[in-house]
Amino acid sequence: MTESNRLPESYASRWASLLAENSILNKQHDELVASFLRPFSSQQIAQLNASAARLGTLPAKVQQLVEDWAKSVAI
User: Fold this and answer.
1) What are the residue ranges spanned by the domains of the chain?
2) CA pair distance 45, 64, nearest whole angstrom
């Protein structure tokens, strides 16, 4: 890998943080689903929707990281 292709440390740490956040949110969501008995109550559905919404924020964060990194290497 050439020097110009290496991911700067700040982007690497942001990526590592996003991976950790993804793992934590997925684990929490899986544990939440496993803790509920079907059929889900309206409160449980709301909790699952909130958990899914937290997971749904990750793609935008990854996209922002990619855009920031792309801008930094284009300079």
Assistant:
1) 13-74
2) 30
pLDDT in tens, 23-67: 999 999 999 999 999 999 999 999 999 999 999 999 999 999 999
Q: Which residues are within 8 A (CB) of 55 and not within 5 positions of it... i.e. 6 or more apart? A: 22, 25, 26, 29
- Whole-angstrom distance, CA of residue 43 vs CA of residue 10: 40
Distance, in Å, from the CA atom of 30 to the CA atom of 9, rounded to the nearest integer, reads 31
